[in-house]
């Protein structure tokens, strides 16, 4: 029986009774940012509309952290705490935190007060030990590795007191800040003292040559390569741009990407790719359609560029220097780096293409804050200062460059040094936080909409049937 019929019947019965300086690329080092006249295939640029809505309140989301005097002198002054980070009485955070036992644990873990526990994902144990051995030199602390299966698990371990720090890109850092009350204490510094990088789209040069006014809309129905779901340069920036093109408020981020592109390769650090349509383009790695995780060949900016270079995609969303670093001429070229950087170009969001020279300028989806060292909001002050003091000494990065930093995900390959975070986490994330929040809003809205649509008919139908039954019973009782 239709709902309208039930309503009519009910009324009848009633009448009666709710997102490296590329410095050593010989003969292809970055050149000064080109003027508009030097841009290749670039039509007149127009300003992208600013992000609308999803602003932040004036207060920090993180809970206040207890004040601690430094027990270990440091030449670094303690940064003044903003009102939102000032103290309240709390339990003694200096007491050793229990270390989780079981399959996810690591033999390197140490809950001692004089130990800095850097969390990273399984598969990077050797690289972690290599880096932390460098950091332990000339340090008052012992640096050790905590290994987990994903960045999400690392964040959870830091929240539980099982680890101290992790290095995250802006997209993941926002999630850790918003959901786990973590804060950024230091950030990477790149070439020319840059504390940010551009989120760009890279395409084959032939695509640009075939159409002078090429735009992202021309890639609708084509294949895409993303370094990972939720990463700023690989996911949130381009997906937010596509969202604005269509003005859709009914689809979440996965729906937007899956409906715009014919195949998508976007491995997930936390294994969320299965069955959600974001791993269909990852080729042999997704034979069963159930997983494409961090250990994928196509994870991260390098993986997305590899996906494009290997012919699995038509457009790759990466950091601005990725093609320079990992092409055939690049300083960090890999066994799969078979093609020249000249075989690719930047695809400008506003239309047209530009030569890849390390300075995409306006030919990007926006500026992403440099990767940051995230820690618990209640990390003891003396430990934080010692971490900052050691990270700020660039000698360990120079030693790492001499070895194999190009293949280590724990630190960006173009990192020159780390610097103390001078602002609150929310302020540092800036526009990136706004974009990430807009994507989060889409996810929440879709989930709530699905729950509402799933429950609306059964609930309404049940309520009408109850009322109808009562009316019928009353009617028969009066006979």
Automatic annotation (TrEMBL):
SUPFAM superfamilies attached to this UniProt entry: Periplasmic binding protein-like II
Q: Where is the composition biased (Low complexity)?
A: 75-85
Q: Which taxonomic lineage does the organism of this UniProt entry have?
A: Eukaryota, Viridiplantae, Streptophyta, Embryophyta, Tracheophyta
Keywords of the record, alphabetical order, are: Signal
What Pfam families is this protein classified in? Transferrin
InterPro entries the record matches: Transferrin-like_dom
Start and end residues of each Transferrin-like domain: 116-447
Please state what the protein is called.
Ovotransferrin-like
Claim: rRNA processing is one of the keywords in the record:
no
Signal peptide as annotated in the record: 1-22
GO cellular component terms?
early endosome; extracellular space; plasma membrane; recycling endosome
Where do the segments described as Disordered lie?
Answer: 33-91
Please give the organism: Rhodamnia argentea
In its UniProt record, which GO terms are filed under biological process? iron ion transport
Superkingdom: Eukaryota
């Amino acid at each position: 029986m239709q709902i309208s019929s039930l309503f009519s019947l009910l009324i009848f019965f009633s009448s009666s009774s709710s997102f490296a300086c590329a410095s050593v690329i010989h003969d292809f080092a970055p050149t000064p940012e080109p003027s508009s006249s030097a841009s290749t295939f670039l039509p007149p640029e127009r300003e992208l509309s600013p992000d609308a809505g999803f602003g932040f309140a004036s207060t920090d989301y993180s809970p206040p952290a207890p004040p601690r005097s430094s027990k270990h002198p440091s030449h670094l002054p303690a940064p003044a705490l903003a009102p939102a980070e000032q103290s309240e009485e709390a339990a003694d955070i200096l007491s050793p935190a229990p270390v989780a036992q079981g399959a996810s644990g690591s033999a390197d873990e140490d809950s001692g007060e004089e130990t800095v526990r850097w969390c990273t994902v399984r598969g990077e144990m050797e690289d972690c030990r290599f880096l932390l051995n460098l950091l332990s030199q000339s340090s008052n602390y012992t640096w050790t590795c905590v290994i987990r299966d994903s960045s999400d698990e690392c964040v959870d371990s830091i929240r539980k007191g099982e680890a101290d720090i992790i290095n995250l890109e802006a997209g993941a850092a926002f999630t850790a800040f918003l959901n786990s009350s973590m804060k950024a204490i230091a950030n990477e510094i790149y070439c020319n003292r840059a504390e940010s990088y551009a989120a760009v789209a890279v395409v084959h040069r032939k695509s640009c040559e075939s159409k002078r006014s090429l735009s992202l809309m021309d890639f609708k129905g084509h294949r895409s390569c993303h370094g990972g779901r939720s990463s700023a340069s690989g996911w949130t920036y381009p997906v937010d741009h596509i969202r604005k093109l269509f003005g859709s408020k009914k689809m979440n981020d996965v729906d937007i990407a899956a409906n715009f592109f014919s195949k998508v390769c976007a491995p997930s650090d936390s294994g969320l790719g299965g069955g959600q349509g974001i791993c269909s383009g990852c080729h042999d790695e997704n034979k069963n359609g159930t997983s494409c995780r961090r250990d994928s060949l196509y994870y991260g900016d390098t993986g997305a560029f590899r996906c494009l270079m290997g012919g699995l995609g038509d457009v790759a969303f990466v950091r601005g220097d990725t093609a320079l670093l990992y092409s055939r001429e690049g300083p960090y070229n890999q066994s799969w780096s078979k093609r020249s950087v000249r075989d690719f170009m930047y695809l400008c969001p506003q239309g047209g293409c530009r030569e890849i020279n390390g300075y995409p300028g306006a030919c990007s989806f926006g500026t992403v804050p440099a990767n940051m060292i995230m820690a618990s909001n209640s990390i003891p002050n003396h430990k934080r200062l010692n971490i900052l003091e050691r990270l700020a000494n660039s000698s360990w990065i120079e030693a790492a460059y001499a070895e194999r930093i190009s293949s280590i995900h724990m630190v960006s390959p173009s990192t020159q040094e780390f610097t103390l975070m001078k602002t609150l986490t929310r302020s540092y994330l800036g526009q990136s936080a706004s974009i990430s929040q807009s994507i989060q809003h889409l996810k929440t809205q879709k989930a709530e909409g699905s729950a509402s649509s799933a429950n609306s008919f059964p609930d309404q139908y049940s309520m009408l049937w109850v009322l109808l039954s009562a009316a019928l019973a009353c009617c028969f009782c009066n006979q």
